[in-house]
Amino acid sequence: MISRWRLYAAVAVLGCECIACFFAGSVELGERSVMVGIDSAEAAEQARFAIELYGIGALNLLASIAWLLRRSGWGWWLVLAVQAGIFVLALIEGARTDLGWFYFSGLPLLTLFLVFAFGAVTPKARAELLGTG
Predict the structure, then answer these.
(1) Half-sphere exposure (Cβ direction) of 111: Cα atoms closer than 13 Å
(2) Which of 83, 87, 88, 93 is surrounded by the most beta carbons within 10 Å?
(3) Cβ of 52: how many Cβ atoms within 10 Å?
């Protein structure tokens, strides 16, 4: 069982990541026509980036809600898988399309480490993850 304060800390970290994704998407969408014309290819790329950030924020929110509603092992593994998947997606997109993804890739990795450090993983799941169980 997770202590109450560690659970609150994990929820706060996951919530902050969702808010950061939605905020970054809003900034990216709002600033898309400031430097270049609205009809340019760069503005379309910025709009696509903003939509992807909104999608990532929604995916994080859904995984967090699933974990909070049923604090079981599968919900936690879903949160871990989403964080790892977003990190890998950001690295691939950063190498393929836009350097901005490299800057974003640290956010899911930081969230993954912080939530793990707060002890939101059950002792059994931590032993399985580290290979000591």
Answers:
(1) 28
(2) 83
(3) 19
Q: Which residue ranges make up each domain of the chain?
A: 4-130
How many residues in total does the chain contain?
133
Q: What mean pLDDT do residues 105-128 have? A: 74
Phi, psi of 92 (to 5 degrees): -65, -45
Give the pLDDT score at 124: 66
* CA 19 from centre of chain: 10
Residues 6+ apart with CB under 8 A from 112: 80, 83, 84, 87
Tell me if 17 sits within 8 A of 60, measured CB to CB.
Answer: yes
Alpha-carbon gap, residue 31 to 42, rounded angstroms: 11
Closest to 6 (Cα-Cα) out of 63, 56, 71, 62: 71
pLDDT-wise least confident of 19-23, 34-38, 111-115: 34-38
- The 10 Å Cβ neighbour count of residue 55 is 12
Structure tokens at 37: 């014309």
d(CA 7, CA 3): 6
Asked whether 113 and 1 are in contact (CB, 8 A), the reply is no
